[in-house]
Write a structure and sequence with these properties.
Distance between the termini: 32 Å
Shape: elongated
Order of helices and strands: HH
Radius of gyration: 12 Å
Number of helices: 2
Number of domains: 1
Strand content: under 5%
Helix content: over 70%
Structural class: mainly alpha
Largest sheet: none
Number of strands: 0
Length: 62
């Protein structure tokens, strides 16, 4: 079973990568952006619940 630190690390990595993909997609493909935004919200809620400070990580800020 993965440790809490491993889970947090994986979620932070996914959160960062997702934002990298969302930024260029926002203007060109709104439907894809909406799907990505749902995952963004899920990750943001989960990371916040795990006590991760998202101030520096969150580039979308929605």
């Amino acid at each position: 079973m993965p440790s809490a630190a491993d889970i947090i690390k994986d979620y932070v990595t996914e959160f960062s990568r997702l934002q990298d993909w969302m930024i260029p997609v926002k203007e060109t493909n709104p439907d894809t952006y909406d799907s990505m935004h749902k995952r963004y919200i899920e990750l943001k809620v989960t990371l916040s619940a795990l006590g991760v400070n998202l101030t520096e990580l969150d580039r979308i800020k929605q």
